[in-house]
Amino acid sequence: MKEMTLRDKAGVMLAIFALTVCYQLFLATSLTPIGLNEGNDSLVFKHIGLALLQGKVPYIDLFDHKGPIVYFIDALGIGLTSGRWGLYLVYCLYIAMTTYIWGLTAALFVRPRQTVWPVAVALAAYLIVNVEGNLTEEWSLLPISYGLYVFVRHFVTGEPITTKRFFLVGIAMGVVTFLRINNMAAVCCAILFYIVYHLYQRDRVTIPMLFRSCLTILSGWALVFAVCCLAIFALYGSEGLEEMLYGTFTFNFEYMGFSPIVSTDRKKVYLYFGLTTFVILLLLFMKKRLSALNILIALCYAGSFIALGTKGWSNYFIILAPVTLVAVAALSDVTNRWQKALVFLMFFAILPYRTYLSWANIHEDKTFYEETDDIIRGMTQEEHGRIWNDAYFDGLTVLHRNGLIQANRVMLPFQLQISERLARDEAARFEAVAPLWIMTSMPFEEWTPMPLDSVRTARDYTLYKKVERSPGRYVYFYRLNRKEQ
Fold it and tell me: Which of residues 255 and 300 earns the better pLDDT score?
């Protein structure tokens, strides 16, 4: 078949981008220009991105436990336009590029026109757990997908993997390392299987060649590691580098030992993806038996599930989408139409409900935004810089939509339970800032968040207003008593 020209490829990419812009208007609820919802994790990333544009230092002025790449992506998108369109279009372009790679991967198994089915299933597998958009799992999809493409291509076509592609795989892994390191499990499994397979086969891929390949991958990863560290050091000095390494790596080892109670709803996500994965693998091994590619796919699934951990947040399962793409594409030429319909329905049956939930978030009650915006507008410039947020994502929403940065360092209070270092630093920050305003999710008489002193807080701050976000969910605005200022 005649290969696509550069013009044809550009046309396909443009079509995918246009389609992505359309469907993400309704699904990327934290980014869509037609909505008001700021999201949860996405809001944290956007808030740090906004803080970077205002001259703040990541991990020092605002702390989070993800790698710096996502914050700089958000800063880039937010800086492009005054509204939501900049970051939204950057995000859609990135997802479109990922979808294009998925098409190339599927084309290893079927004709170009037949790639629609596996790509559609992979998109559905991703979209049903894309709870808000702009998540580290989504920004990891392109490097994960490229890494899988390289190794799947090798096992499907038999072509050797070039040094350039090994190097790019290393770069891809480096990018994921500075997003969320758990996300690269599938690519790590693909590399491991590649090594073990050729050691066992003792074919034209010799041990010295395998050693050079590993070094090439490592060099690509090391390049990204070095660039990230040098960039943080150049911008924010040795303290910025130390805190970045703590937030990106050390804190996450502490976080691994933190075991919140996993709700029944989150356990359902494990069950759902466990069952869908079982059905896909069952069909694969029934139809293609114990092939090298099947073993590779099974290992990638297993590694990804292990990397998900036990906390059960549904967005973690986004990283399964590239593996599902490969598995479904491998099934394309051996399953009958009823089996294809089964695989298709396993994912698409949930998509309408997922779209409904997104639509509800996009069209949430505007009263909360109007009331809290009025409170912010009534503050002075000095007060804007001394607002302490202990109202979790609701308080962060109030600040972010008004272009303000919270005075406290930690945005997610559960982190204070994990790290004594953070709790100690946050207490010192409270003393240094002497907040004029405090936002909480519960009244002080019921609960006083760390690191506030409950006795002093109760005496020195007075409730200014209580604003309802949704039934039973409020943001309490406390103001420092005049005599205490």
Answer: 300
Instruction: Please choose, from the candidates 82, 315, 341, 362, the residue with its C-alpha nearest in 3D space to the C-alpha of residue 180.
Output: 315
Name residues whose C-beta falls within 8 Å of residue 16's C-beta, 6 or more positions apart in sequence: 96, 99, 100, 103
Rounded Cα gap, residues 24 and 19, in angstroms: 9
Query: Using an 8 Å Cβ cutoff, are 433 and 388 in contact?
Result: yes
Q: Is 377's pLDDT higher than 70?
A: yes
CA nearest 294: which of 454, 135, 389, 155? 155
In terms of Cβ atoms closer than 10 Å to its own Cβ (0-12, 13-18, 19+), residue 26 is middle
**For the whole model, what pTM was predicted?**
0.93
Residues 252-267, mean pLDDT to the nearest whole number: 69
